[in-house]
Amino acid sequence: MTIYEASGEDSERAADKLALGVAARLSRYLQVLTQARKMGKETISSQELADYTHVNSTQIRRDLSGFGKFGKRGVGYNIDSLVAQIRKILHTSGQQNIALFGAGHLGTAIATSDIFADHGFRVVAVFDVDRDKVGSRIGNLSVRHYRELREVIDDEEVVVAVLAVPASAAQTLADDLVEAGVKVIFNYSEALLQVPPEVTVHTSSPAVDLLYALYFYLA
Amino acid sequence: MTIYEASGEDSERAADKLALGVAARLSRYLQVLTQARKMGKETISSQELADYTHVNSTQIRRDLSGFGKFGKRGVGYNIDSLVAQIRKILHTSGQQNIALFGAGHLGTAIATSDIFADHGFRVVAVFDVDRDKVGSRIGNLSVRHYRELREVIDDEEVVVAVLAVPASAAQTLADDLVEAGVKVIFNYSEALLQVPPEVTVHTSSPAVDLLYALYFYLA
DNA sequence: TAGATTGTTAATCGATTAACAATC
DNA sequence: TAGATTGTTAATCGATTAACAATC
C-alpha cells in the first residue's frame, strides 16, 4: 500500500497515519461533497469531483479505493455515504470546539459564517481585549474578555484556536494558548508564530494562493 | 532539469511553465520572506524558511538553486534580493489590480488588511448590491454599485476578482465576471462555481485546512 | 581559522497518468 | 443490452531526503 508512511521528522508518532498528500486531498473532497450535498446532489462521479478540486479523477478513485469500495460502477459515489466514510478516515466524525480570538470584521465574518460549522467545528467562544466589544453579541455568542481564556479552554475542551487578531498581538496570544493546552492554532494574522513542536500552526495566506493562481495566468 | 513540465491538461499552453509544486512553494516562501522583512530580518537560512513553511530545507535550496545561486554559504539568503528574484520567477513583480465583491464583514476585513497589498495586489474597487452600503467608505475606497462592474473592470484592467458574497449570489456574479473578462476568481463563498476552462477559480476553504491540520493531531 | 550554510548528487518513495477490464 | 463509471494495473515523473563537498 502506498497510503501509509513513517515520514522523517514525525516518525516518533504512530505509523498509523495517512501520507500528507492523501490527508490533504481527502479534506478537499470533503469540502466539495459537503457543498454538493447542500445543492441537493445525491451522487457524484470522480470526474465531477476532479473538476471542482483540480485533482485528477484517477487519483481520486485511487485515494478512495485504498479504504474500501465506496463507489458504484456506472453511477458514481453516494455523497452522504462518502462524506461519512472520509470523516471516519480523517477521525473527524465528532464535533470539535473552536475558540475564536478577535471580534473585528474578520472575527465576526468567521463567527457568523457556517464555513466551519458545516464540517463539525463549533465556535464556542469569541474573545477580544477591547472593552467596547466585550459583552456585545456576535451571532448567538457573547464576546468575552481575554482574561477568561484559560477557563473556557479547560471547560470546553478547546483544542483549536482561530486567531483573527492584529499581527502585533499574535505571538503573545499564541504563547498563552500553548500554555493553556491548545494543540492547533489557525493563524489569520500575518505574524510568523513560534510554537513548540507538539503544536501545529497553520497560517492562512490568501495572497499566497492568489500569487499561485495568478502565475498560471501570467505564465 | 526537473523544473519545467508540459503537464497533461494544460499542454496547450507554452511549455515555459513551472511545475505546479514549485510555483506553490515559491509563493509560500514569498509570504514568509515578506513577513520576515517586516519584522526587520535581513537574511534568512533555508532552515528558518523550512521551520515556517513546513517544507524541507533541502527542497527549498533545490527549488531556488534551479534559478540561480541566490544564497551565501555560511550566511543564508538576503531577504530583499530573494523576494525580488522569486517575484521575477513568478512574473509577479508588477502590480495587479483586484476588484472586491461584497462589502460585508469579510469584504471589509479584506479591503482594510494589507495581506494583499504586501504582495503587489491593489484593491481598486469594492462592489455591493445593498443600497445602504453603496456610497459608504471602506478604507480609502467608496463602495460602488454592482452595475458599474463592467466599466471598472475595463478601465482598471482588473484580472482578479475576489468574491466575499453569499453563496446564493456567487454563480451569477461569476458569470458576469467571466463575461467582463476577469481571468482569476478568488472565491470566499462556499458555492461551487462553474466557469469556462480559461478562467481559474480558487475557492478558499479554511475548514479544509483545519480538517487537515487537525488530522495530524487526532491520528 | 572554525563554524555555518549553501549548492548538488544520488537514491528512494509517492504522485500522476493512461488504459482497460469489471460491473452497475 | 448499451453506456457510464469504478477499481486497479503498470509505467513514468516529480518530490523528498540524507549526505557532503564547496565556500562564505
Structure description:
2 copies of one chain form a homodimer. Chain A has 219 residues and is α/β, with parallel strands linked by helices. Chain A folds into 2 domains: 82 residues, Winged helix-like DNA-binding domain superfamily/Winged helix DNA-binding domain (Arc Repressor Mutant, subunit A), CATH 1.10.10.10; 112 residues, Rossmann fold (3-Layer(aba) Sandwich). Helices cover 41% and strands 18% of the residues of chain A. Chain A contains 8 helices and 10 strands. Chain A has a 7-stranded mixed β-sheet. In chain A, a hairpin with a 3-residue loop joins strand 2 and strand 3. In chain A, helix 1 runs antiparallel to helix 4 and helix 2 crosses helix 3. The radius of gyration of chain A is 19 Å and the shape is globular. Chain A starts with 19 loop residues before the first helix and ends with a helix. At the A-B interface, helix 1, helix 5, strand 10 and helix 8 of A face helix 1, helix 5, strand 10 and helix 8 of B. Chain A binds a DNA duplex (24 and 24 nucleotides) through helix 3 and strand 2.
Number of domains of chain A: 2
Determine Rg of chain A (CA atoms, Å).
Answer: 19 Å
Average pLDDT score of chain A: 88
Low-confidence blocks of residues of chain A: 1-15
Query: Into which percentage range does the β-strand content of chain A fall?
Result: 15-25%
For the largest sheet of chain A, list the strands in their spatial order: 6-7-5-4-8-9-10
User: Quick one: CATH class of the largest domain in chain A?
Assistant: Alpha Beta
Number of strands of chain A: 10
How many individual helices of chain A?
8
> What's the CATH architecture name of the largest domain in chain A?
3-Layer(aba) Sandwich
**What string gives the helices and strands of chain A in order?**
HEHHEEHEHEEEHEHEEH
Largest sheet of chain A: 7 strands, mixed
- Our measurement of the CA-to-CA distance between the termini of chain A, rounded to an integer number of angstroms, reads 37 Å
According to CATH, the fold-level topology of the largest domain in chain A is Rossmann fold
**Helical content of chain A (DSSP H or I, runs of 4+):** 40-55%
> What is the overall silhouette of chain A?
globular
